[in-house]
Amino acid sequence: MNLTKVLRPYFIRRLSALNRANADVEATQKRVLRELVGRARNTLWGREHSFRSIAGYDDFTSRLDVTPYDQLRPLVMRMIAGEKNLLWPGLTLRYAQSSGTSDGKSKYIPVTADSLRLNHYRGSADVVARYLGLYPDSRIFSGRSFILGGSFANELNLPTHTRTRVGDLSANLIEAMNPLANLVRIPSKEIALMQDWHTKLPALIEAASRANVTNISGVPSWFLTVLQGILKATGAKEIHEVWPNLEVFFHGGISFLPYRSQYDAIIDPSRMHYLETYNASEGFFAIQDSADSHAMAVLIDAGVFYEFIPANNPSASPLPAWQVSEGEIYAMVITSCNGLWRYPIGDTVKIESTSPLRITIAGRTKSYINAFGEEVMVHNTDAALARACEECHCRVANYTAAPVFATDGHRGRHQWLIEFTTPPADLDRFAATLDLMLTRENSDYQAKRAGGIFLDPLSVTVAAPGLFDRWLESTGKLGGQRKVPRLANDRHLIDPMLEMNASLRLTPHL
Question: What is the pTM of this model?
Answer without folding.
Answer: 0.81
